[in-house]
């Protein structure tokens, strides 16, 4: 049996679509756990109606604690041999669970990863891994660039887990990167991973109220923590050069965007902006990433080089020219 955990918070408009896609799976041995995370928009009542419509659905009502708290609540009551996660604003292909279970049993691994279909406002893109099907964890260095670049490792929703192998839940203290943290901790405990070249999950980016879309001035601090965690993982399991380069690219791009946010923040005076930028530019993690990244565009390469040289005034000037504001 597969326990499918769906965290639900103020998602009345999309929850029925999500749950219908799970209920219509060709693999029938399901336990569908919907965790209502303190919704206030009628989602709670809809959850109860859905529970009455299918005896495989179980609803948990709890106080609001965030998506990690909701997933952990689902894990605590899950009874299935395997665990799958689906976000409430997304949906899954009718044969997704069957594909995942079949692959896991056939290859005798503890984790299956598949591709996904990304739905944006004006574009639909299928993002599918192009790599070896079954891979020992210690040989993931052969796949690391594609896995990190296309976020196959990050999310929990394109995977099938073995429930008894899950010894650490999602870190509830994090508001960003909690999924990747969970996945890396899980991968450390297993020996092999199977990767399917199929887009089985439908990831909806059109809903601006999505649980995953958060932005605040604390994001880079959280990404620093994740960067260190990822570096430790690469050094332990992967080819250091390729893994660190990809991680450094991602972190440096985040840093450049963050510095632009500082520049645009109206709460800072001009002097305070420069001071805040200098603090981050001189940060050890930022400096490490600047020495190991290989960014593709000219502007990003220029920005990372200025950061590496700790030339805060020129970074400020570059961002000012880009924004057109003084």
Strand segment tally = 10
The assembly state of the depicted protein chains is: single chain
Give the topology string: H per helix, E per strand: EHEHEHEEHEEEHEHEHHHHHH
Could you report the average pLDDT, rounded to the nearest whole number? 86
Structural class designation: alpha/beta
Shape type: globular
* Main sheet record: 10 strands, mixed
Protein described:
By secondary structure, this protein is α/β, with parallel strands linked by helices. It is built from 12 helices and 10 strands. The chain has helices spanning 12-23, 43-53, 67-77, 96-107, 144-149, 178-187, 219-237, 240-264, 270-281, 284-292, 298-308, 312-323; strands at 2-8, 30-37, 57-62, 82-85, 91-92, 111-120, 123-127, 134-136, 159-162, 192-204. Strands 1, 2, 3, 4, 5, 6, 7, 8, 9 and 10 form a 10-stranded mixed sheet that branches. A hairpin with a 2-residue loop joins strand 6 (111-120) and strand 7. The longest helix is centred in the last third of the chain and has 25 residues, at 240-264. The model is unreliable at 208-216 (pLDDT under 50).
Task: Summarize this structure as a short list of keywords or feature phrases.
326 residues; alpha/beta
Summarize this entry quickly.
This protein is an alpha/beta fold. The chain has helices at residues 12-23, 43-53, 67-77, 96-107, 144-149, 178-187, 219-237, 240-264, 270-281, 284-292, 298-308, 312-323, and strands at residues 2-8, 30-37, 57-62, 82-85, 91-92, 111-120, 123-127, 134-136, 159-162, 192-204.
């Amino acid at each position: 049996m597969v326990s499918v955990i769906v965290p639900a918070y103020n998602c009345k408009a999309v929850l029925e679509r999500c749950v219908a896609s799970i209920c219509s799976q060709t693999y029938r041995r399901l336990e569908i756990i919907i965790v209502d995370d303190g919704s206030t928009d009628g989602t709670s009542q809809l959850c109860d109606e859905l529970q009455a419509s299918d005896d495989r659905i179980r609803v948990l009502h709890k106080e609001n604690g965030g998506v990690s708290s909701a997933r952990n609540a689902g894990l605590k009551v899950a009874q299935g041999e395997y665990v799958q996660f689906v976000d409430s604003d997304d949906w899954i292909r009718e044969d997704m669970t069957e594909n995942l279970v079949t692959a896991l049993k056939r290859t005798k691994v503890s984790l299956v990863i598949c591709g996904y279909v990304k739905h944006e406002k004006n574009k639909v893109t299928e993002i599918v891994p192009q790599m070896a099907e079954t891979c020992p964890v210690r040989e993931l260095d052969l796949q690391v660039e594609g896995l990190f670049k296309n976020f196959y490792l990050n999310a929990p929703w394109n995977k099938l887990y073995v429930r008894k192998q899950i010894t650490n839940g999602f870190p509830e203290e994090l508001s960003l990167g909690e999924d990747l943290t969970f996945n890396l901790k899980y991968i450390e405990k297993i020996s092999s991973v199977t990767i399917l070249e199929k887009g089985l999950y439908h990831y909806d980016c059109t809903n601006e109220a999505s649980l995953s879309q958060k932005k605040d001035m604390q994001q880079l601090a959280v990404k620093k923590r994740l960067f260190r965690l990822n570096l430790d993982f690469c050094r332990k399991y992967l080819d250091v050069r390729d893994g660190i380069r990809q991680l450094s690219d991602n972190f440096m791009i985040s840093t450049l965007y963050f510095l632009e946010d500082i520049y645009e923040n109206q709460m800072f005076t001009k002097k305070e902006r420069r001071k805040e930028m200098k603090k981050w530019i001189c940060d050890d993690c930022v400096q490490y990433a600047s020495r190991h990244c290989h960014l593709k565009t000219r502007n990003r390469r220029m920005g990372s080089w200025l950061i590496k040289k700790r030339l805060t005034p020129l970074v400020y000037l570059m961002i000012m020219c880009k924004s057109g504001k003084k």
